[in-house]
Amino acid sequence: MNNRNLGRADRMTVVLERDGTHCTWCGQDLTGLAVPTTDHLIPKVKGGPAWLENEVAACRRCNGQRGHLSPAEWLTECRGRGWHPDAERVRRVLASLREAIEERGGQRRARQYLASQLRRLNC
Ligand SMILES: [Zn+2]
């Protein structure tokens, strides 16, 4: 999964096929009224690359409310709200991002952030 030139709609299709059609954070079904978005696990402002390995499906509400919180912080916040976030998906996608960065190189800022997130998520 290394096509970085896909358009927005195609990226969404790939992500939904990979992870299923529910919001990573609140579990809401994204095939109904909720508007699906792709949420960057490592925020762009923290150096997160625009790769599929850094994206998960989220409803627009969660994507907006998360802001720049880290995945670990936001998972805690989601649980505090009584939701059942898909922490396993987050771990899996972050692990695939680690592999992608190892393969492709670069992404110095993202590497450090990713390492600390993986530690917090016990990967
Ligand atoms: Zn949601």
TrEMBL record:
In terms of Pfam families, this protein maps to: HNH_5
The molecular function terms in GO held by this entry are: endonuclease activity
Species for this entry = Labedaea rhizosphaerae
Instruction: Using the record's annotation, list all stretches that form the HNH nuclease domain.
Output: 10-64
Q: What is this protein called?
A: HNH endonuclease
Q: Where is the signal peptide?
A: none
Annotated coiled-coil positions are none
Keyword annotations from UniProtKB, A to Z: Endonuclease, Hydrolase, Nuclease
Which sequence ranges are marked TM in the entry? Answer: none
